[in-house]
Amino acid sequence: MPSLFELPTPRAARALLGATLVHGRVAGTIVETEAYAAEDDPACHACNRRTARTEVFWGEGGLAYVYLCYGLHWCLNVVAHPKGRGGVVLLRAAMPVSGLDEMRRRRGRDDPPERVASGPARLTQAFGVSGVLNGADLRRGEFRIEPPVRRPGRIAAGPRIGITKAVGLLYRYWIEGHPAVSK
DNA sequence: CAATAGATCATCT
DNA sequence: GATGATCTATTGC
Q: Which of A13, A137, A145, A165 could form a disulfide with A33 if both were Cys (CB 3.0 to 4.6 A apart)?
């Protein structure tokens, strides 16, 4: 029985819906993800470019890949792929379970719960995630992901957001009808 | 309400 | 020197 983080990346992305992201006192349910495969996926940072930064794509499942986007936003990914391959899952949105005040304080604004972590960069802001957590082991510790305890609702799929390549791949997944899914 | 500009930097060419 | 897996504020209808 392979762990959640050893599934093919698109399946791992779906399996992470309904999981809980925890960082200390703050926790939330993951409601939206995207898959980025290292092979055969031109939109992926690691496609044909195995460099120092992307090395973790082929690393142990469950490790964090955190990178800076557009010079000011952090994005949080989890390494997930069958052994011998490479790929990560981008965490795009979460619904707060605890620590809502902390999230609002970090964001510096009084967002409603379903919007405070609705978007890749909002999520990292609300959860206090930045580059120093790159490479962290999300399977254990203060900063971790707990597998879903129940099946989430119906899962929808669509094209990924904000990319210019491989637009035809339906690698974005979300819990259908969930208010915290990004716009 | 929809469209767009600007912020800002690690990483790679 | 170019390039983004984004967000927000502001402008223009």
A: A13
A124: nearest nucleotide, CA–C1' criterion: C6
pTM of the model: 0.96
CA atom of A68 to C1′ atom of B7, Å = 14
**Domain parsing of chain A, residue ranges:** 4-175
Residue A67 has which token pair?
A: 């990178």
Confidence category of residue A137, pLDDT binned at 50, 70, 90 = very high
Strands (E) across A5-160 are located at 20-23, 26-37, 64-69, 73-79, 87-98, 143-146, 155-158
Query: In whole angstroms, what is the distance from residue A59 CA to residue A46 CA?
Result: 12
Inform me whether the pLDDT recorded for A19 exceeds 80: yes
Q: What CATH number labels A4-175? A: 3.10.300.10
- Which pLDDT tens digit goes with each residue over A32-49? 999 999 999 999 999 878
Query: With contact defined as beta carbons under 8 Å apart, do A167 and A158 qualify?
Result: no
Nucleotide nearest to A76 (CA to C1'): C5
